[in-house]
Amino acid sequence: MRNLIMMAVMVATTAVAVGADEPQESSEATAQAATGEMQIATFGAGCFWCVEAVFQRLEGVEKIVSGYMGGKVPHPTYKMVCTGRTGHAEVCQITYDPTKVSFDTLLEVFWKTHDPTTRNRQGNDVGTQYRSVIFYHNDEQKELATNYKHKLNKANAFPGGPAVTEISAAEVFYPAEDYHQNYFNQNPGQGYCQFVVAPKVKKFQAIFGDKAKKE
């Protein structure tokens, strides 16, 4: 459904840049964030509009860029990723302040606001680009994510079965086209935003209201 909506958007949108920024190596992004005592987390949980909208509302999150990671095709476009043949996942690169929010809390929000039990699918969005994935930026993130996933599966935390979330080392991050950035906030009345993104935001607010940014 979202792909049909976006085809219309792309036809109606002219002079759209191929990417919002230059591709960024994982080590480069981590180093840049560390200089300001910020940290980087990279999550894929279906459509990046959903992931962005949820984490934008979490206290301690300073910046989010939607983009692509995990494939072997350089400089992918949205149209290319939508084919499901690039190997890239739709992800959000999250810059956060570890003095305000922990990586464990980011993981909790991640796992509680999407279905990690469906491989290469979130709702009606189907394809490898929609897979549940955590791209870790250091050994600590890897250990925390792996242990958290193991704990959830041991406790049978999900009615749909065990979490199948991929946990892989971060690779080159390719920012998505400009029109994907801050999408839900700028297009709250769009159909997909109303029926798919908004319920996820509502779920986040219901579960994590005490951790949400004060508006």
Automatic annotation (TrEMBL):
Alphabetically ordered keywords of this record: Oxidoreductase, Signal
GO molecular function: L-methionine:thioredoxin-disulfide S-oxidoreductase activity; peptide-methionine (S)-S-oxide reductase activity
Keyword Transcription among UniProt keywords: no
Organism expressing this protein natively: Rosistilla carotiformis
Coiled-coil ranges per UniProt: none
Catalysed reaction equations from the record: L-methionyl-[protein] + [thioredoxin]-disulfide + H2O = L-methionyl-(S)-S-oxide-[protein] + [thioredoxin]-dithiol; [thioredoxin]-disulfide + L-methionine + H2O = L-methionine (S)-S-oxide + [thioredoxin]-dithiol
Residues the record marks as active site: C47
The keyword DNA damage appears for this protein: no
Signal sequence, start to end: 1-17
Family statement drawn from the similarity comment of this UniProt entry: Belongs to the MsrA Met sulfoxide reductase family.
Pfam families noted in UniProt: PMSR (PF01625)
EC class of the enzyme, as a word: oxidoreductase
Name the UniProt record assigns to this protein: Peptide methionine sulfoxide reductase MsrA
Lineage of producing organism: Bacteria, Pseudomonadati, Planctomycetota, Planctomycetia, Pirellulales
PANTHER family linked to this entry: PEPTIDE METHIONINE SULFOXIDE REDUCTASE (PTHR43774), PEPTIDE METHIONINE SULFOXIDE REDUCTASE MSRA 2 (PTHR43774:SF1)
Peptide methionine sulphoxide reductase MsrA domain segment(s): 41-194
Purpose: Has an important function as a repair enzyme for proteins that have been inactivated by oxidation. Catalyzes the reversible oxidation-reduction of methionine sulfoxide in proteins to methionine.
E.C. number(s) listed in UniProt: 1.8.4.11
